[in-house]
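Instructor's aside before we start: the two examples that follow are unrelated to each other. I chose them only because their records fit on one page, so don't look for a connection. First example below.
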Amino acid sequence: MNHDDNELIRQRREKLEALRRSGIDPFGGRYPVTHWARGLAERLGGASEEELKGFGPVSLAGRVVAMRHHGKTCFAHLMDQTARIQLYARADGLGDEYARFVELDAGDFIGVTGEMFRTRTGELTVAVKTVSFLAKSLRPLPEKWHGLKDVETRYRQRYVDLIVNTEAREIFLMRARLIRAMRAFLDARGFLEVETPMMQPIPGGAIARPFKTHHNALGMDLYLRIAPELYLKRLLVGGFERVYEINRNFRNEGTSTLHNPEFTMLEFYQAYADYTDLMELTEALFVDLAHSLRGSLALMWGEHPLDLKPPWRRLAFFDGLSETLGLCVTPETDVAAVARAAAARGIVHDEGPAPKLWKEAFETLVEPTLVQPTFVVDFPTELSPLAKRKRDNPLLVDRFELFVAQHEMANAYSELNDPVDQLARFREQAGLQARGDDEAHWLDEDYVRALEYGMPPASGEGIGIDRLLMMFANQPSIREVILFPLLRPEGGRAAGAGEES
């Protein structure tokens, strides 16, 4: 904090004490609000002077964000949850209260009542008749935000960012509209919204490292969920045929412009459907959201112009690898041949299983080419331990990942409902875990037992809401669409912290 800020804080504290000496509570209580700024603008934006005069008194409350003194008159701007509105105060209208009004600082909260009118410049304005002091601001609001340091401060002090940055407010208003639209879309198609545990004895449903905690009363270790998948599929067993959850997941990984250890997903499951049905449903969902949020299927995300008009491209996993490596790659292709082709393109593969090489080569070479919406389909079984095998090729599974502008947006597959096959794959994953792979799937015997009671054929999908909002709001970083992203401690580095990029 610089000297000027310290001096401003000192002056504000003096005003705080002056309020108390005059018998005014600087941190007041209830105030009866009758209108919001945006509602007044929408209702009275085109009103005539006669209509404004007949509208009647209004009461608003919010934060003072600007003040302009003109002797015995004063203009101010009040910001509430919805928008800003101009206030006009006169000494002969407020009387003794006028002196206190002009002493307001940007950041103070007040309540005002008054009549609506329009200034000579045409701005809708409240002629203030009474003013109530609601809360004193002791720190000055910043005037400008720029540069890398200030970007980080915006994330750390989101409460200030939301005051001064209109774009930030609009992003989070869009986030709320996005989630409402998702719910409406699924509810209209017969899906039931449910809640599943966030603390789980066995973390399952994804390949990720979990956060661990301990329940003292029960004397047991628990894990913050990495995905709700296995619980949602238990509900399919229980007879709920279409379910969804807008869920918070936690994965113990580094942070980046695309990853936050705590993030939000939409995950849904539909009985008697397969992954091809969900490709059509996903196209319809994205189209619905695009029309609702942006009014168009043509979007910009960073440097990429996007066209969301369906149908979207389908690209088989091994076709993508083959095209990029210049070698016909199948699940049975000799790993050494694939490794030589990958090495020629800069991918060094030490000795290890072929699936690891396929995954690395695809992520490094193929994904950066996927700009327009593309369903990558038909993954190898080894990379999809919860997906159903393809009937015509058991080395592959009925799965897709959706990519837009080089980013993975969704993951879906026809669900494996064969308990014998599922148990075998869990045991294979347990072997990987025993060899040091701390992201491998755990063996969940209760989930296998649930499958033994019978789960209908079904398909399920997960869509990252944070990343989806990045696309619709045209933002380059996940930190721009999460209100309070995880950051390393201010002024230092946490022990064992992952790198931020």
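Example two begins here.
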Amino acid sequence: MNTPPVKRRTDPERALQRRNQVLEAAALCFARSGFHGASMAEISRQAGMSAGHIYNYFDSKDAIILAFVEREAEYISGLLRDLDSSPDPLQAMLDDVAHHVAESLDPQPWHVPLEMYAEASRNPVIAAKLKEVDERSHRQLRELVKRGREMRQLPVDEALLDGRVHTLVTFFNGLPVRGIQRPDMNRDGLVEGFSRVMQALLMS
């Protein structure tokens, strides 16, 4: 078994650029070959750098998946911060339904979340990281839902809030799978259905 080369110091900005280059290459390889089918050699070819060079930034494929998990968490956290700056976060969520449905059905990002979840079912390290970032985003979203419901003088007990947030996230997490099964479905009808469900979950 080959030992990964010793990591060398790199300029932080260049290192970040290289890490992103590896992640973009890995996303393409995972889409084409799956997580286990894609080798570090394949990823290095796609990235246009040597396998030894990749080990300066990621010591394994697990490390690459963990980086995708953290990247997704940062993206979701940014969305939630934007909602938090809205005077009415619940209405802002409803106003953004069409955008987020379309984004979830976009073929490009499908492979990364699906590979993350599939690997988490086998790998306890990935599962633990997914649980950690989900708990973080769950707390953020629950606070937003709580604030919006308090504005409307609706119940905000903890069990109710947790149930509504879990249900909402479950609906959105299922979109990529449904998109694979029925890529030709009517998106306008889907958006209308999501809007109704979200209004019932958030505002009743």
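The CA atoms of residues 150 and 156 lie 7 Å apart.
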